[in-house]
Amino acid sequence: MKIKENTILITGGATGIGYALASAFLEAGNQVIICGRRKDKLKEAEKKLSGIQVRICDVTDFVACVELIEWMKKNHPSFNMLINNAGIQQILDFKQKVPVEAISNEITTNFTAPAHLANLSIRHFKKQKESAIINITSGLAYIPLAIMPVYCASKSALHTFSVSLRGQLRDTNVKVFEIIPPIVDTELDKGSRGKREQGDRGIQPKEVATETLKALEKNLFEHPIGMARNLYAAAHSDKALFVFNRMNGG
Ligand SMILES: NC(=O)c1ccc[n+]([C@@H]2O[C@H](COP(=O)([O-])OP(=O)(O)OC[C@H]3O[C@@H](n4cnc5c(N)ncnc54)[C@H](OP(=O)(O)O)[C@@H]3O)[C@@H](O)[C@H]2O)c1
Fold first, then answer.
1. Best CA proximity match to 2, nearest among 124, 163, 171, 128
2. Distance between CA atoms of 154 and 140, rounded to whole angstroms?
3. Is the pTM of this model over 0.70?
4. Which of 75, 105, 158, 245 is surrounded by the most beta carbons within 10 Å?
């Protein structure tokens, strides 16, 4: 996959990994549009990243997602790359009563919205010379952390969806990538690592961005980064891919 001259939409692009991806893709010579819910964060990113375009969008609002992709197609007909990066992470204790809204919101943000946005983009992407859907999952998609059960399940779902989507699109020009970060030093955990006295703040978002561009350039469709490689390796064997290929005529 080429890593310049793309027109890229990054969800959750105003902070953390999304911001680092926006910065790296701009620097590499791409057109970048980011979205998120907080206007102030989008404005901050707009000030710092010359050439970026920003849109307010809550990805859990399915109509707003339709409007966003329609806006992309109309205003950026060369739109050829979707980075499903927006995500939330909650510590949920099922020994207590967990509100169903908390479960539903995490699944919607981390799984339903990326699938919806991919669905809205694919037919447009098929008209482009080369295009890509990039899903940001997590090492925790492979071996879960029990204190955040819905987060891990949502990332496993996004992983499995990526495998199937790649299978469905294998004879098209639409490539499906899964980037699998380890712990990254962002605000995703809303400070809970500090409260748990977890000293390891993880790698810097910039490193995830560098690895993502490398994965795209080398067509590494499933790319675990850093410590996530250990979780990925623990959960995998060669036989899994063999069985998938047998089941799917590959
Ligand atoms: N940090 C880690 O250790 C780690 C590890 C593995 C994977 N990841 C994944 O990396 C991705 C980025 O996370 P991050 O670590 O960079 O954390 P982050 O800085 O909190 O970024 C998450 C972004 O998603 C946006 N977002 C959340 N809900 C949204 C919604 N409903 N609609 C639109 N945008 C929404 C947030 O902006 P608004 O709040 O303004 O909407 C924010 O910009 C996530 O998918 C996360 O699961 C992170």
1. 128
2. 10
3. yes
4. 158
Domain encompassing residue 28: 7-247
Pocket test for ligand 1, best of 9, 186, 230 (most atoms within 8 A of CB): 186
CA of 244 to the centre of ligand 1 (A): 30
**Ligand 1 site-directed mutation target among 43, 57, 59, 88, most atoms within 8 Å of CB:** 88
Does the residue 236 lie in any domain? yes
Q: Among this protein's residues, is 232 annotated catalytic? A: no
Read off the CATH number of the domain in which 194 is found.
Answer: 3.40.50.720
Contact 114/84 with Cβ under 8 angstroms?
Answer: yes
**Residue 140 per-residue DSSP state:** G
In a domain, 1, yes or no: no
Q: Is residue 2 part of a domain?
A: no
Q: What is the full per-residue pLDDT of the chain (250 aa) written as tens digits?
A: 999 999 999 999 999 999 999 999 999 999 999 999 999 999 999 999 999 999 999 999 999 999 999 999 999 999 999 999 999 999 999 999 999 999 999 999 999 999 999 999 999 999 999 999 999 999 999 999 999 999 999 999 999 999 999 999 999 999 999 999 999 999 998 877 777 777 788 999 999 999 999 999 999 999 999 999 999 998 987 777 777 778 878 7
CB of 106 within 8 A of CB of 90? yes
Say how many Å lie between the CA of residue 122 and the centre of ligand 1: 23
Query: Does a structural domain hold residue 23?
Result: yes
